[in-house]
């Protein structure tokens, strides 16, 4: 069995975590920022130290290739992303890239032979915080996003992705997209939910990702004076919207056990203490592993919006702004990971992910699965994000063993 | 009976409405803006044309004084305000000032004798949109607000009231406050609600103003990822806040017939479509003519906040940021106005106001009442604000007659 070097793994993690570290031990390393440049430079240097062939494509995805013993074999793709949310955590993305790096280092230490080439990748702009959309690098690479279009997307200051890539020196020459067929792909990530911790497990083998839909609703009422306007005459956009917020919460109890429903954005105009709200814009996020349930949820939300607005006598616009079916990862890769977890002796379970990942896009291109390690209290996308180091190590052990098996698979 | 000149009254209204007129026939004339300067210049010039003694105090209140036949009699104070809400209407405030101006012109036309001096006033910054607080000029004049403190209040650009007064040349020399005892005061204003229109009446004699309380609530939840966070683990600040919005609406049906309740401001953080809201700040406005009911409402809102937050497992801070008891206007002045309305033959009713007015502060200083004219659809504080001209005229007729009676009262 290949063994990782736990001290090196942890020291590398700490070193990478210094770049963009926040006062509260989080990470502020937005895609294509100066901090992103710095961490990319370190990553490239670490790949070169391993003697890997490094290449950078036109969207800034960074690849390192370790050749296998069979020059004609299809490669295995491993890695994740190094960008962070604004004032996010140190584990989201970074732990996956560094587990892949530790895998190649462990192979190098022990001269582990692998028939297939192994490619390690750092995907550009997974988070989508500075530049929309999220999963940009993997989406462009797999052809799910239009490269020329996303290069022109601008941040809040009007800087485009292409310009930001130029500024940090990571607009590579390589064409974006696979040069050959891949055999398989594996991504390690923090769970971002509480299930593994609740069950006292170290590793989750992720067999799929929820389907989801996003709705945007704008409610149009009348902005009257909060004093002299009797209740019967009011058309209060916030009263109607609040009814929908409550209904969306209750819809999580409908249709299936795994349903999650969220209103994340809600803006009130004119937003004055003594004026009845005339316009409220809000979003609805509904998810389930069952695409039919997502469809049922969307219809149910539409009915709730209609009912709440009719009750209050207000008008509304409703738009479904995004819908993505559930992802079923490769049973072959997942079974390989489950067997590797058994072999390593790591406590584990099979599970599905409520959040999208680069692996979702990569799965469209080649057989893919993921490993999850626990997130303490399920916290993510903030500075308190944390994974017990013993769990991170256990995840890396399963990762290395799984990659070894994939890289030697027939 | 004194008669107004309807054509002059309307022409004057149209002329004043040109200053700060919006494309949608509303009025954008913020306190102490360039437009406010222009309309003040016109007002001063109109007062001088009537031969009035004009004076301007240190907070920019503009007074014009028509002496009476008895030099020792206490004067009657009439007027309202010429500033507007941002993109507000033409009637709010302005109609009251111009009804007072038309009153003095009508007296002048016919050489109507009045025993008491009559003072016309344009109060500075009634709206409170650019500079907080509202009712600034009347509040400082009556000693309810601290003059030196409000002079230092700044707008969003950091310009203080004192600087803005200097810029438009309306930081007068006169001390702020009454130079002598007043006999009484009368203000005409648009109703800003639908009651007069609903009952087909032209004039309301306002006998008082609602008491009210303002609460600010901040709910503290946890910003977790909308996908992988199971429903049971969520602490969603918006779900709790929305429950309170619904409860606040339902509380309008409690305690008394006249209760109105409003959530006007509500802000969500971090405000991302796939992140559970971690913090929601919102305001609650509760009003009734009965101060005990306002107290009951505040307690009921506090209980609802506590219950909703406990249900969701979130924390909160709640602050009562303002409470003002109801105002009872002078029965003597109101009865004079009712008798005048009968004499004029105007359709009318006695009523109370849900909104605060300069007259509320003035009532602390001298016997005061108000006249309301109808607001079409109850609309106010927006460009669609409208009063049928026949009603505006009828209101002015009752106003002139009431002022005549007050100015000759023993």
UniProtKB/TrEMBL annotation, chains A, B:
The keyword Nucleotidyltransferase does not apply. One of its GO terms (molecular function) is hydrolase activity, acting on carbon-nitrogen (but not peptide) bonds, in linear amidines. Keywords: Hydrolase. SUPFAM superfamilies: Bacterial exopeptidase dimerisation domain (SSF55031), Zn-dependent exopeptidases (SSF53187). InterPro entries: Amidase_Cbmase, Bact_exopeptidase_dim_dom, Peptidase_M20, Peptidase_M20_dimer. Residues 208-313 form the Peptidase M20 dimerisation domain. This is N-carbamoyl-L-amino-acid hydrolase. It comes from Halorubrum aquaticum. The lineage of its organism: Archaea, Methanobacteriati, Methanobacteriota, Stenosarchaea group, Halobacteria.
